[in-house]
Design brief:
By secondary structure, the protein is an alpha+beta fold. It contains 14 helices and 15 strands.
């Protein structure tokens, strides 16, 4: 009998342990994948909630209203068409044409799913329609509009295609991200145009990075203290395939990206890739921007973050910005050597303190670089889908770096999160 009681106790402990494990796993899965569930286009719960809840506002980092809901229940975006087009791939639209944009990916906040029990009771007692939370982003609307225009001017005027990202390399804040071609969320007719206007190339466009792989190449070269002299092609001839792939993996190639605030397609570096045959390597502009940011940040790669804060209708703060480390890619000493290598490759005509590389990769033109000053910790990745020399993307980079430098003394812009 005594043995039987012991067995029952052990069985009960096992059941409780399994139940506890399921609770922990469920909580972890909700925290890591919750936004992805809400963004699912066939989620009937979200569809039902949209019929009874007034969607919350979306603001930029300075408080500019990017999206709101009017008295008739219609979603209203910025009045300026250029601004709407520049922001559309980040925000999305009411029909969710853009996959995993804020309008769908953050619907748990925008449609009140995170409201507390007491808030729901208060709403019922008031008899008024429930309102969703206000979502404030890290992005700067003026910077995003300027970045979109700079990229557009660098592309084929008849068929502009490309993407660009600006992030704070100290914190991981996404300050701007644009994709071309774009469309006006107030005019879905634009979606019939060529070039997949609804595709967010910044996070879903996987490109052959060419010169934008420079941080990986320089890191592999400097591992044994080798000099970074010569062209990038010369350096590739001095790096083994095994070492280059190992460094690519340290920079995140092959990772399964599960970021809290946005969905980024994985980057790939096929096994057996020779240093002189990198056409099979694929990466998104956001990931490549992260690689340059990690170098500027002393080897520490930050997770890209889009949300600045989320506030409930009554003022309760549901979320506030916290920087998140993704991984240490290299030591500060190794990062300093890579910075020196990038400085040697930096083309002329860029503002003081900017390091980077520009050049073509097949039919694409690239720029990847950053401002190294601690008071302007900005990284930029830009790709124009247009054949040409390095000046195609470089001209856009010069324009946007000049735009940002001019506003360094304007605290109201707060583009660097100072």
């Amino acid at each position: 009998m005594k043995r039987q009681r012991i067995r029952y106790k052990l069985l009960a402990l096992l059941v409780f342990a399994l139940f506890g494990g399921l609770v922990v796993y469920g909580g972890y899965t909700y925290l890591t994948n919750g936004s992805r569930w809400f963004a699912y286009s066939k989620n009937s719960r979200v569809s039902s909630q949209k019929q009874s809840v007034i969607a919350g506002d979306i603001l930029d980092r300075d408080g500019t209203v990017l999206a709101t809901t009017d008295a008739d229940g219609a979603r209203v975006y910025q009045a300026d068409e250029a601004a709407r087009r520049a922001m559309v791939h980040l925000l999305g639209d009411t029909a969710n044409h853009v996959a995993n944009a804020v309008e769908s990916f953050q619907s748990s906040y925008l449609y009140g799913f995170r409201a507390t029990l007491w808030e729901r009771i208060a709403d019922l007692r008031s008899g008024e329609a429930r309102r969703g939370d206000t979502v404030q982003l890290n992005v700067s609307a003026p910077l995003t509009t300027a970045l979109s225009e700079a990229l557009r001017q660098a592309c084929d005027p008849e068929d502009p295609r490309g993407a660009a990202v600006v992030m704070n390399w100290q914190t991981g804040e996404i300050l701007a991200a644009v994709s071309l071609p774009s469309f006006d969320p107030n005019d879905p007719q634009d979606l019939r145009g060529a070039g997949a206007p609804a595709l967010n190339r910044a996070v879903q466009g996987v490109y052959s990075p060419g010169p934008a792989l420079a941080p990986v190449i320089l890191a592999a070269l400097s591992e044994n203290g080798e000099s970074a002299g010569g062209t990038l092609g010369d350096m590739l001839g001095r790096v083994s395939a095994e070492r280059l792939r190992a460094w690519a993996e340290r920079f995140g190639f092959g990772d399964n990206f599960l970021f809290r605030d946005l969905v980024v397609l994985n980057s790939t570096y096929p096994a057996g890739t020779a240093p002189q045959e990198l056409s099979g390597v694929r990466a998104t502009p956001v990931h490549l921007c992260m690689t340059a940011a990690a170098v500027a940040n002393g080897g520490l790669m930050m997770e890209p973050r889009l949300l600045l804060r989320v506030t409930g209708p009554g003022g309760a703060q549901r979320l506030s910005f916290t920087a998140a480390e993704y991984r240490w890619v290299m030591t500060p000493e190794e990062a300093a050597r890579v910075c020196e290598g990038l400085r040697a490759l930096t083309p002329a005509g860029l503002p003081d303190g900017v390091i980077g590389i520009a050049g073509p990769s097949g039919a694409d033109s690239w720029f990847l670089g950053c401002m190294t000053a601690d008071d302007m910790p900005l990284a930029l990745c830009l790709v124009a889908e247009q054949e040409g020399d390095r000046d195609t993307a470089l001209s856009a980079a010069r324009q946007i770096f000049a735009w940002m430098a001019e506003r360094e003394a304007a605290p109201a812009m707060d583009i660097a999160g100072k």
